[in-house]
User: Fold Signal peptidase I from Gluconobacter vitians.
Amino acid sequence: MPLRKFARDILSCLPVLLGFLTIHSALAAAYIVPSASMEPTLMIGDQIGVVVPSYGLSTANLPFGDALKPHDSSGGRLFGHLPRRGDVVVFRAPANLHQTWIKRVIGLPGDRIALVHGHVVLNGTELPWKDMGPAREESRRGVWLPAERYEETLPGNVHHNILKLSQDGELDNIAPFTVPAGHLFVMGDNRDNSADSRVSVAEGGVGLLPVWNLQGQAKAVLWSWRHMTRTALIL
Assistant:
């Protein structure tokens, strides 16, 4: 790894590491991944460092923010700005504001989204996949299922890995729609095991995520007792 890139990665994670030392602060926080929805990027038990003010601040960042949700939850952020496609974000779950969830941003306000046989079609262009070979999903602690790993590429040449357990599952085909203002379309990297924007809030999913719910951007795996080689992994 070139020295300049290594130094840049360390500097970019400095707020996360400082936040880890203080456990929780206005700059950074640490969360433990409880589910398989972001595999292979995040594994069950990973402790992730989150930069809190990445997208500005809202009452969602406060300890009792669930009681302070504004009537119009599509805005209400101080110094707010939108994530980039591909960012891994933590947020108050729309179905239960007491819970913090984590997903990847795929669509921004105004984007036209569809899913065809599992592939995301973004503004009329299908996101390319590269087959990375067989993999496994830890569906729950100690239970592994066969899967296939793909590298998906977002606009701007942003790459990330995803898992597929099957072809043409129940969440693999969605008619085109436009992401409304003040909302995001988010997905788990484990495409067949994630209650994300493809699943309505009424059904326990995220639905279209209001920007108010954002709490920060996940930047690194601080450590994982179950997967020690993932410690200090930059996302």
Remarks:
- Helices lie at 3-12, 14-22.
- The first helix runs from residue 3 to 12.
